Amino acid sequence: MTKTIHVNHLARVEGHGGIRIELDGNTVSSVQFQAFEGARLVEGLLAGRRYEDVAAIVSRVCAICSTAHTLTSLKATEEALGIEVTEQTVALRNLMFLGENIESHALHLFLLAAPDYLGYPGAGAMATDFRDTIATGLRLKKLGNTVQEAIGGRAVHPVNAVLGGFAALPRLDTLIRLRDDLRAGLRDAAAAIDFLASLPDIDCGQVDCCFAAKHAGDGPSYYTGTEITIAGRDGSKRFDVTDYRSVFDETTVPYSHAKLNRRDGKPFMVGALARLVIHPRRLTGRSRRAAEKLGLSVPSGNPLDNNKAQAVELVLDIEQAALMVDRILDVGLTEEPRKRVESRPGRATAVTEAPRGLLIHSYTYDGEGRIAAADIVTPTAMNAASIEQHLRQAVMESTDRSREVLTRKLEMVARAYDPCISCAVHVVSGK
Amino acid sequence: MQRPRTGIFGLTGCAGDQLVVLNCEDQLLTILTILDVRDFLMASQANDTECGLDIALVEGSVSSREDEARLKAIRSRSRLLVAIGTCAVWGGIQAMDRDHDRSQLLNTVYGPSGRAFDTLPARPVGSVVQVDYSIPGCPIEKDEFLRAMSNILNGDPPIPVTTPVCVECKFRENSCLLQEHGAMCLGPVTAGGCAARCPSMNTACIGCRGPSRDANLASAVELYRSKGFSDTDIANRLRTFAPLLASSGDDEVDRDAPLVARGGKT
Predict the structure, then answer these.
(1) Is B111:A429 a contact under the CB 8 Å cutoff?
(2) Do residues A372 and A48 touch, judged by C-beta distance below 8 A?
């Protein structure tokens, strides 16, 4: 007898998606993570656009990850056209990434994920009993936005990051206020950890996973670097992002607008948990204590541990952002003349760590400086197959066959990945 | 007085305008006491998808039959429907599809499987249903949104900004990127309300708020031509966020084309 669990419209995620599971007695016969956000065909629309127009267009792939899309796009175009950037620009871009991560994780943990652990339909309902907690989460979210606004000019779809650097430098008083806000944010982060550590552990099954994350150039960074490590129980592989098409196997499926990514036939996970698995030595003092308080140990096959990993990153990123602003205030900022860009044919692939995981932008430019081809591989597209494996495990390990309880668990598993479905549906065929 | 029953919806887009609503961190908890939010999928599990609504905020373009059906259902249950964001008001970046052969686009992006997808050329919300108020922006401005909501809650229409970005740029005493630096700044034809954020940061306006009221596109085209920009690049820039100007298909800019977006071919 076939039993179907179908979540038609997954709530509390970015974008439009669903989950469909089919059970044949005790066997899971089908698992589908359906990304059905409308097709905007951005990679196709980029064809013929000049290099200076590209970043602002791809920023619109997604709002929460708009900083990541913008900066990854600039990184790829700069490499393709041979434009160099200074250490100052790299530092400011790193800072933007930190701000984005802080905002995204705070949003996800407090507004999207936490309500499930306590049985609330949403943060609005949760706020009636947990007003201070939600207020703390909102302050942390705002802090991330403040960082992005200070450097990028606007939180959603930044305007200040341009080819070669920044159109305008942040003012001194803005940076001083930012530093104070970040230091105050550490207190909110500590309170956030206390709250999140108090949440019940919910068993949604465990799967031995493969993980993939980027290596930083110098020091921990979401922005710099070109190499990726993918690691699992069977070993690990480190490769340059330019080889991604030969390392990741992508397949289309009829039930989703997103492609599934696998490595050697196996799904892999990207995101906060993957970053901690691949780089366990990232954690220092505060963030290490936060991980201990949350009971997080890596590697972990528990998808809900991605939430814990995001919480740890929240602490780490606020700390690092504060240090980074300190350093910038020490060294000072130097006005840089706008870079001269010469059109030439070029091809490059750039990788960064967006809040949800690896983000890849790959562009080919013709001799007139126009896009001939573009490919964007987003973290949620990379996670789609792994989400399905965790959904399957959640069903298989669930001793409680109540449809209601099982459905809630499946939603929690999907949400733990913090899926960004608007991003996931960006694909390019025929590789 | 009953709290207004409110729904917040996203069709096809980046969810940026819904995010701006959530980005009103200082006001959010208060907003939730003033509005009776009944249907907001991005924020809540428990949504009443049938009840009548006093206010519906709709983001995103109509890019599929599913979007169309959902939008019509939203319209039929709502007293006021407010289109929020440039995608909802004008079509957004996805409306650049008018410049491409759509079936070829689908094939490039999805391959043969794309043919089976429920996907349509992007249209603004107002092309499908009656819209009561429009708040453009990519994304919308937080302040403008809060002011608009205040107006609506008081029974007044929001007050749109009718002047172009140039006016705000002049107020801020910026040097003109177009006239003094020869950049293709779309300020003269773009709806103000953003305090000329981009030009104030030394970067040309890209028109993300859509065209200003009475935008003189024909004159703008001549102006950019006189600065040495090609018709291809002028058309590309002007059509990034809204399918302005009719496209004759061979990159010729039609000076007499009406301002509003034309229906796209499937």
Answers:
(1) yes
(2) no
Q: Of A172, A147, A358, which Cα lies nearest the Cα of A248?
A: A358
Which of B12, B112, B206 minimises the CB distance to A37? Answer: B12
On the question of a cis peptide bond just before residue B139, with omega within 30 degrees of 0, the verdict is yes
Q: How many CB atoms lie under 10 A from the CB of residue B92? A: 30
Model pTM score = 0.95
Q: Are the C-beta atoms of residues A314 and A189 closer than 8 Å to each other? A: yes
Please count the residue pairs, one from chain A and one from chain B, whose beta carbons lie less than 8 angstroms apart.
192
pLDDT band at A429 (very low <50, low <70, confident <90, very high): low
Q: Show Cβ contacts of residue A325 under 8 Å, excluding neighbours closer than 6 positions.
A: A95, A175, A178, A179, A182
Which residues pair with residue A256 across a beta bridge?
A: none
* Whole-Å CA distances, A259 to A213, A330, A381, B56, B121: 19, 46, 6, 33, 22
The residue in chain B having the minimum alpha-carbon distance to the alpha carbon of residue A423 is: B14
Rounded to the nearest angstrom, the minimum Cα separation between A184 and chain B is: 16
Counts of helices then strands in chain A (DSSP H, E): 15, 13
pLDDT digits (tens, 9 = 90+) for A313-340: 999 999 999 999 999 999 999 999 988 8
ipTM at complex level: 0.95
Number of H helices, E strands in chain B: 11, 5
C-alpha separations of A29 from A20, A262, A404, A429 in Å: 11, 20, 19, 27
Coil, helix or strand at residue B261: coil
Express each pLDDT in B166-213 by its tens digit: 999 999 999 999 999 999 999 999 999 999 999 999 999 999 999 999
